[in-house]
Amino acid sequence: MSFKQKAKKKFPDWPVYDDNEIKALTNVIKSGKWWCGSPEVHQGENVWKFQKEFAKFQGAKHCIAVFNGTVAIEVPLLALGIGLEDEVIVSDYTFVASASAVVATNAVPIFCDIDPNTLVMNVNKVEDLITDRTKAIIPVHLGGNPVEMDRLMEIADKNNLKVIEDCSHAHESIYKGKYVGNWGHAGTFSFQASKVLTAGEGGAIITNDDKLSDLIYTISDCGRKKNQYGYSHYIYGTNYRMSEYQAAVLLEQMKKFPAQHKLRNKNAKYLMDKLNAIDGIHVMKPTPGTEMLGWYIYPFVFEPEKFGGITKLEFYKKLNRNGIPTDDCYPPLHGLDCFKNIDLRKGIDYSNANWGGEKSNDNNFPIVSDIYSRSIEFPHEMLLASKDKLDFIVDFIKSLK
Ligand SMILES: Cc1ncc(COP(=O)(O)O)c(C=O)c1O
Questions:
Q1: Domain membership flag for residue 14
Q2: What's the confidence (pLDDT) of residue 2?
Q3: DSSP secondary structure string, 94-123?
Q4: I need a surface site. Which of 5, 187, 315, 379 has the fewest CB within 10 A?
Q5: Distance (Å, rounded) from C-alpha 378 to C-alpha 368?
Q6: pLDDT for 285-325, tens place per residue?
């Protein structure tokens, strides 16, 4: 059978749903309780139930559900007092939201280069970026791969910095015995359509700090306080609440997650052994100390000279044309137009940032720039495929030599 014929065997679709999601949504509509209400006066029950279950799922004391993963980062930044022209160190290799949430609070993101093997924030480079304006760090567990959180927390504690873990890719990733999101002051999640746990849109914040949890709730629900009159608004806050529809779908998706997570991890290891055995292919390396990976994306880096000088675009097109779903990895943040042109928020001084104009030159971020120029990723649903499809990918990549 030719590669083209074999590729006609379809790879799994995402999201995966059945009648249970449809029933859960219909139940919300029929109940007439279309929002969650307040902590004291529940309307619908789905958001309250989801918050409890997700906290347990991720091994945390508290969960506050919000409507997407971007505001999930913004709210704890506000709750931790990050604001005007404070500097926040963020990985350079991530989706724009990890940094745009910082910009939304009028603070300034500072980009940190990555480790060439694990592809996450290089903790060795963090201390060099700390100034007297630095107030927080946002490690991003890219593709579910944990940042070295024990070392990062030592640096944060020594310098009195807050840490918000962006766990949008890292549902149930475990680093050194602890679920990610529990190492820092807060952990944030996305349930956007492509994520391993999804309701199309959605987000959550976890924390183990009672006071911080209350403050995060207050900011995410119009400045209200628990147990107080609902038209009292104590501090700045706005409406970031998750909807009953999102929570109803997420509760069903959580039931499907354990089997999917197990299969993704099993197949990720199978594929990693086979791909790494090809001279010139390097799959993202799990950070030493990782016990389980969320595997939202499956990035690999190739050495062009081992494939006859192939470019990233050619590699990518060949995979896609042959029916293998692939995607570009994230363009490093320092080179995005919004940062290069410093066209961000009115009245904010970005002149001390390590990006903007000439400072956004790739030479200033050598590792991430090199890695981006020769990395490609598979979506996580690929890891739900049968072994013969995984073997097909391996054989196809070998055939490009
Ligand atoms: C690393 C990372 N952080 C934050 C987000 C933002 O999540 P959302 O799309 O739910 O706002 C995403 C979304 O893709 C992400 O990949």
A1: no
A2: 52
A3: S-THHHHHHHHTT-EEEEE-B-TTT-SB-G
A4: 5
A5: 18
A6: 999 999 999 999 999 999 999 999 999 999 999 999 999 99
Share of the chain above pLDDT 90, in %: 96
- Mean pLDDT over residues 90-100, rounded? 98
Give the residues across from 138 on adjacent strands. Answer: 90
- Cα 306 to middle of ligand 1, angstroms: 34
Domain holding 299: CATH number? 3.90.1150.10
Three-state secondary-structure class, residue 254: helix
How much distance in Å is there from the Cα of 155 to the middle of ligand 1? Answer: 25
Could you say which of 253, 279, 307 is where a domain stops?
253
The residue segments making up the domain with residue 375 are 3-7+254-399
12 located within any domain: no
Q: What is the pLDDT of residues 172-217, one digit of tens each?
A: 999 999 999 999 999 999 999 999 999 999 999 999 999 999 999 9
C-beta neighbour count of 309 within 10 angstroms: 8
DSSP character at residue 241: B
Average pLDDT over residues 81-94: 98
pLDDT in tens, 38-56: 988 899 999 999 999 999 9
- Residue 166 Cα to ligand 1 midpoint, Å, equals 8
Domain boundary among 209, 227, 253: 253
Active site residue 169: yes
* 99 and 240 part of one domain: yes
Instruction: Work out how many domains the chain is built from and give that number.
Output: 2
Instruction: Report the C-alpha gap between 243 and 168 in whole angstroms.
Output: 19
Catalytic: which of 141, 162, 195, 389? 195
91 in a structural domain:
yes
Q: Are residues 188 and 44 in the same domain?
A: yes
**383 and 395: one domain?**
yes
pLDDT tens digits for 225-282? 998 999 999 999 999 999 999 999 999 999 999 999 999 999 999 999 999 999 999 9
Q: What is the Cα–Cα distance from 217 to 207, expressed in whole angstroms?
A: 11
